[in-house]
Amino acid sequence: MSYPDSCHFSATQVNTLIDSLVEHGWFIGPQMLDPALCQALHQEVMGRAEQQSMNRAGIGRGKDHELREDIRGDAIHWLDRETLAQRRYLDAMAELQLALNASLYLGLFEYEAHFAHYPAGAFYRRHLDSFRGRANRVVSTVGYFNPDWPRDAGGEMVIFDRHDPDREVARVSPEAGTFVCFLAEQVPHEVLPTRQPRASIAGWFRRNASLGGVVDPAR
């Protein structure tokens, strides 16, 4: 499959993303990801799901980690740069990290991300990606890879107001090419039940909250 050497975002796209993060705390960019790269990533997620080489996702980290299908029902695989498509996506995120640090002085240290596969019927209830005062996940990202997503297929991500967490401000269809960014410790969001398999990459730009040279928290 042929696709660009990198999944570069244009300067206009990056500036719009940064302005939206500052003003609203979130950004939605339809058709922002390269179509051929989306196709390659979609094939990889679906192939892994078919081969059952993904892990059931849980909530919490370390000793607090637990499986709760009443809260989330997706399966995940952490990106490790083992495929060309993964490397192209991660290279684009590295460029975005530099731009966010240069413009917003966030001190972002690294980016972690995983594939997420939601089978039919799966969802993820409203949550924050990081908790105030305990945050090293600063900016969350979601890239979607589902071609020709039907309007009645569900699976939308709902974004809530960071100042009024009961007020819905946006609803994102998981259509291929859409890229979403939001402040991890401020913006509540949820994934509505999907009626067909749904593929994405969820990622987080992190600050270094390490002690004694050990990055915290470990994945």
Structure description:
- With 219 residues, this protein is an alpha+beta fold.
- It has helices at residues 11-23, 35-50, 84-104; strands spanning 26-29, 55-56, 75-78, 110-118, 124-127, 137-144, 157-160, 168-172, 179-183, 189-191, 198-206.
- The protein is 23% helix and 26% strand.
- It has a seven-stranded antiparallel β-sheet. Strands 5-10-7-8 form a four-stranded antiparallel β-sheet, with no helix packed on it.
- It is globular.
- The two termini are 31 Å apart.
Largest sheet, spatial ordering of strands: 1-9-6-11-4-3-2
**N→C terminal distance:** 31 Å
Radius of gyration: 16 Å
Estimated share of beta-strand residues: 25-35%
Question: What string gives the helices and strands in order?
Answer: HEHEEHEEEEEEEE
Structural class: alpha+beta
Mean pLDDT figure = 90
- The shape is globular
Give keywords.
globular, 219 residues, four-stranded antiparallel β-sheet, 23% helix, seven-stranded antiparallel β-sheet, disordered C terminus, alpha+beta, 3 helices, 11 strands
Outline of this structure?
This protein is an alpha+beta fold. The protein has three helices and eleven strands.
